[in-house]
Amino acid sequence: MPAALAPVLAATAVDTGVFVVAAAVILSGAVGVVTGRNPVHCALSLVLTLFGVAVLFVAQDAQFLAAVQVIVYAGAIVVLFLFVIMLIGVDREEDVRAEPLRGQRPAAIAVGVLGLAELLGLARFHHWVTGTPSGAGAASGPGSNVEKLARSVFTRYLLPFEITSALLVIAVVGAVVLARRPQPGPGGGDGAEANEANGAGEAAEAEAEPASR
Amino acid sequence: MTVSAGWYLTLSAVLFTIGAVGLLVRRNVLVMFMCVELMLNAANLAFVTFARQLDDIGGQSAVFFVLVVAAAEVVVGLGIIVAIFRRRAGATADDLNLLKG
């Protein structure tokens, strides 16, 4: 049945092409992150990788996660990275030749290659995917991906979902506390205690520093 | 949907390895942090692949939570990095040795 087979073959070619292109984008971005001298270039390579992963999410019928990946990762997290790079300055380039631990870099690369070979070798002799479905619901079938994911998150995983709200609040409060500039004088009202704690930490460090040099 | 799960998982493993090696090799704290993000993305890719292969939406829910935790982690981590850089400009990971015995 060549007439019926042709669309299938075309679909296969498209899927394979999408995968190959996305994989090339992902890997080139990842290599760019690791080898880039300038942190800004690293951040932009990271965007490349994140977009590639989003494409593969779409290719695997995870449309909601692809959208979230682009919005949260590429839109928020990378921008946060860029803000921090701007805050602390980009003029400092890493001295790649300086090696405080002799032989640490070759050893790291060797360990990485060994781990990868182990992973792929293990997978070569076993099935990639085993196990039973968790019962959270089917990923395929009628209904949109968003609907199924929402049903899973808001019923079976409701408690973890609620806990993430606490996690986010804690993270925001922690970031604000960390980013506070310790004020020299007595701060007004609520912040006085935090300022005192900060000041104590600074004094301790000032004491410790001459000893370490 | 015709590319087999093995290829996706191979890509995920390679991406994770690049991230892990980058984390070990680089000394710039920001770039090390980006390498952690690479590893998280490799894990997410594996999760989605398993979700497709086992026909189980639970894998995608896991990715959702990983995204939330990654966002929180980045916020706190970058806050720490800014706090460190405010005290000592130009610090790399090797300069942070206050706890060295």
What would you note in describing this structure?
The complex is a heterodimer of chains A (213) and B (101). Chain A is mainly α and 213 residues long. Helix content of chain A is 74%, strand content 0%. Chain A has helices at 2-35, 39-59, 63-88, 104-125, 145-156, 158-179, 192-212. The longest helix of chain A has 34 residues, at 2-35. Chain A starts with a helix and ends with a helix. Residues 187-213 of chain A have low confidence and may be disordered. With 101 residues, chain B is mainly alpha-helical. Chain B has three helices and no strands. The mean pLDDT of chain B is 88. Chain B has one domain: Orthogonal Bundle (Helix Hairpins). Classes of the chains: A mainly alpha (213), B mainly alpha (101). At the A-B interface, α1, α2, α3, α4 and α5 of A face α1, α2 and α3 of B.
State the gist of this model:
The complex is a heterodimer of chains A (213) and B (101). Helix content of chain A is 74%, strand content 0%. Chain A is an all-alpha fold and 213 residues long.
Distance between the termini of chain A: 80 Å
Mean pLDDT of chain A: 80
User: What percent strand of chain A?
Assistant: under 5%
Number of domains of chain B: 1
Output the helix-strand order of chain B.
HHH
Helix share bin of chain B: over 70%
What portion of the residues of chain B fall into strands of 2 or more residues? under 5%
Query: What percent of the residues of chain A sit in helical stretches (DSSP H or I)?
Result: over 70%
- By CATH reckoning, the class of the domain at 12-93 in chain A would read Mainly Alpha
CATH topology name of the domain at 12-93 in chain A: Four Helix Bundle (Hemerythrin (Met), subunit A)
Unreliable spans of chain A: 187-213
Gyration radius from CA atoms of chain B, angstroms: 17 Å
Runs of chain B in which pLDDT lies below 50 for 5 or more consecutive residues are none
What structural class do you assign from the helix and strand content of chain B? Answer: mainly alpha
The CATH architecture of the domain at 12-93 in chain A comes to Up-down Bundle
Total number of β-strand segments of chain A? 0
CATH topology of chain B: Helix Hairpins
Largest beta-sheet characterization of chain B = none
Mean pLDDT of chain B: 88
